[in-house]
Structure formats: structure tokens, C-alpha cells
Amino acid sequence: MASVSEEVKTETSTEEKVEEKPEVKLPNLGTDAEDYYTFGIGAIKDGKFPLAVQAWLKAVEIEPTMVKAYNYLGRAYYTQGMIEGAIDAYKKAVELDPANPKSYINLGIAYRYDQEYDAAINELNKAIELNPLSALAYDEIGMALMKLEKHEEAIAAFQNAAAIDPKFPQPHNNIGVIYLMQGRSKDADTEFKKYEELMKEKSAQQAKIMGGPHP
Predict the structure, then answer these.
(1) Mind listing the pLDDT tens digit for each residue in 136-183?
(2) For residue 90, what are the CA distances in angstroms to 2, 93, 100, 124?
(3) Which residue intervals make up region (Disordered) (predicted)?
(4) pTM of the model
(5) Which of 63, 80, 162, 198 has the smallest set of CB atoms within 10 Å of its CB?
(6) Does domain 29-97 match CATH 3.90.350.10?
């Protein structure tokens, strides 16, 4: 039977073998913001979110008006659940490019995720002012209205989204959920079937683009 001192030595030696992974540092790419932006794109494709964030932060440090870097920063933060960081990045994108509806949509989605539903609706309405045919903006407004339990207004928003883009599946699913909550099971079933139908069409189209379904 091993003594206490031997057990302690064994545990210590085991702990000594555990090596911490070195922190990945951003390479020096010079003084061109575009180089850091492009590096960040490659890093995000490899799933290296912290490295991508470092690259885009460096890009906006060099070129503070690089809107696309702020949008990618927001996306990276959002994907990692760092919503405050995402909101700050998207706010900067909106400030620098107030005529771009996509930036308002991104900011609205981040606000909705942060449960700031009125703020989300406000930003999404700005997107619609710039692009009245944004099905995504209407769908996101509907999602925020659902959380505020304004169900009839939410249905109207989802119906607008579906009318603008008849191939957009999500609004039908969302309407179906509200109908279920209202006890309108037949209407809900109709919407869910439409959602499933559109999702199948979407999957078939994606398979076609990728070279056909695999056996």
C-alpha cells in the first residue's frame, strides 16, 4: 500500500504533466487594415473565434471606419453569446453606415436576443424604412412582438414577411405557434404544413446546388 507521501508525489507529478495550451496570438500583418480583415475571415472559417476577433479589432484600430469589420465583429460576438459586444459592434456599424438596412437588422436581432424587445423593434423598423421589402426584418419584428405577447401584431408582421418572400419558411412556423397558443389548432396545422413544405423545397434546392442528394 502506497504511503501518503507517495500518493502526494504521484498527484504532483501528474499535475506537472498537464500543459496549458499556449494562447494563439495575432501575427503582425503590417499596417493594412484589409490584411487583418481578410485574416479574420480565414480564422472564423477555421472556427478560431478569438483570433478572428483580434484580427478585426486590429483592423478597426487601423481603419476606424471599416464597417464590414464591425459587422463581422458583431457576428463573432453574437455567435459566442457575447451579446453586449455584438450590440456595441453593430451600433458602430449603424453609426458609420446609416443607410445600410442590414446593420439595423443585425442590431435588432442582437437586441431581441438580449430581451430588449422594444429596442429590437425600433431598429428593425428603421431597416424597413430603408428597405420596405425586407422579409427578414418583418419576421424579426414578429418574433419580438411574440415575446411582448402582442400576438395579433406579431401575426401581421409574419404575414408581411411571408407575402414579401413566399419561399421564406420561418414566418409560417411562427404563425402556427401563435395559433396553437390561441387554440386555433386547424389553422396552426395549415401553417406548420406550409412550413414543412417550404423547408423541403429549400433542402432540395440546397442539395441541387451542392451537386444533388447523396445516397
Answers:
(1) 999 999 999 999 999 999 999 999 999 999 999 999 999 999 999 999
(2) 60, 5, 11, 13
(3) 1-25
(4) 0.80
(5) 80
(6) no
Same fold, 29-97 and 99-207: yes
C-alpha 213/C-alpha 211 separation (Å) is 7
Query: Which residue, 124, 155, 126, is CA-closest to 141?
Result: 124
46 C-beta neighbours (distance < 10 Å), count: 9
- Sole residue written with cell 450590440: 87
pLDDT in tens, 64-96: 999 999 999 999 999 888 999 999 999 999 999
Grid coordinates representing 97 are 453606415
Give dist(CA 176, CA 120) in Å, integer.
22
- Which residue ranges make up each domain of the chain? 29-97, 99-207
pLDDT computed for residue 14 by the predictor: 44
Q: How many Cα atoms are found within 13 Å in the side-chain-facing hemisphere of 169?
A: 12
